[in-house]
Amino acid sequence: MPKADRSTAVKALAADAVCVVVFCTIGRRSHAEGLTVAGIAETAWPFLAGTAVGWLLAQAWRRPIAVIPTGLAVWLATVVVGMLLRKATGQGTAASFIVVASLTTAVLLLGWRAGARAVSRR
């Protein structure tokens, strides 16, 4: 796949951020936590930081819609860094949460890339 243009990279980064915020919003709603901007931001920031780390490690701007390696690196960093930051700040990291967060973010962060790749191949 050729190197992506800046517009594609910006849209991909925005898509990743939206996916993380959607994941956190759904989680807060399912646990009857408030759906305020502050509450969502409090839940999302560790995962958004992980997404940023993944973008840097993978140099995601080069191939932003690639499922492998970009999507995989962004997803893994989102979960690992997100959970480490949650643990460091006294937020929950129960095993069941780690499993649900891993599966949900995989579907979101890898899924939009798979869809975009399929559309771009047509």
From TrEMBL:
Keywords: Membrane, Transmembrane, Transmembrane helix
Organism annotation: Mycolicibacterium poriferae
Protein name: Membrane protein
Transmembrane segments: 12-29, 35-58, 65-85, 91-112
InterPro entries linked: DUF3054 (IPR021414)
Keyword Transmembrane carried by entry: yes
A Pfam short name: DUF3054
